[in-house]
Amino acid sequence: MVYSRGPGEGRLLNVHDAKTHLSRYLTRVEEGETIVLCRRNQPVAELRPLAKRRTKPRPLGLERGRFIVSEAFFDGLPDELVDAFEGKPHA
User: Fold this and answer.
1) What are phi and psi of 38, to 5 degrees?
2) Which of 25, 26, 30, 90 is least crowded, fewest Cβ atoms below 10 Å from its Cβ?
3) CATH number (domain holding residue 27)
């Protein structure tokens, strides 16, 4: 049995109906709906859409100039790691 909740709260669905009509409910989830699975009318799990994958790489340098990394931060770090922070090729 399927129960509607308030707007934005998801749809309540018992486990038997979810197993019987899983493809139908996955389509609804893909469209952005959230479904709460219930056992004996008690919520036990939530099906919700995953965040969309990025199609472009995240740009670098968005925070450039907003904070300064102290030179002391690099004290004691291996040279290879410091080179990586500075964009130098690994030797």
Assistant:
1) -125, 145
2) 90
3) 3.40.1620.10
